[in-house]
Design a protein that fits this description.
InterPro entries: Puta_zinc/iron-chelating_dom. About 45% of the residues lie in helices and about 5% in strands. By secondary structure, it is mainly alpha-helical. The chain has one domain.
Length: about 120
């Protein structure tokens, strides 16, 4: 079983390109969708993402849909807490692959760290 974790210096989730997420209106409220779309820069990346250090500039105040937590995933995706780790890990792998490529260092790093994270729990 995979255990979800956020890989520092990745930032793949900050690529908000709406065309890559056609189902946004299915799981975000109208208010959240408006906020989401307002965060998308011309390059598809969140306007609050710093490419230099690969960090969110509003991390403590980021929107709820940016917070990968069991309760948010239950609300947004109807994922039971017991399924959270597996689902979130899979989402991260898909997003990292889509943003950086299937042979990227980011994807390899994420996949290599998953077993170590699971063992530490």
């Amino acid at each position: 079983m995979a255990t979800w974790y956020c890989m520092q210096g990745c930032g793949a989730c900050c690529n908000l390109t709406p065309e890559d997420r056609p189902e946004l209106a299915e799981y975000l409220t109208p208010e959240e969708l408006t906020l989401y779309l307002s965060l998308v820069g011309e390059d598809g990346w969140c306007i609050n993402y710093n490419h230099g250090d690969r960090l969110c500039q509003i991390y403590p105040d980021r929107p709820s849909f940016c917070r990968v937590k069991p309760d948010n995933f239950a609300r947004i995706f109807a994922i039971a807490p017991a399924e959270f780790d597996e689902f979130a890990s899979h989402c991260c792998e898909e997003q990292i692959e889509g943003v950086y490529g299937p042979r990227s260092g980011e994807l390899k790093s994420y996949q290599q760290a998953l077993p170590a994270v699971a063992e530490s729990i």
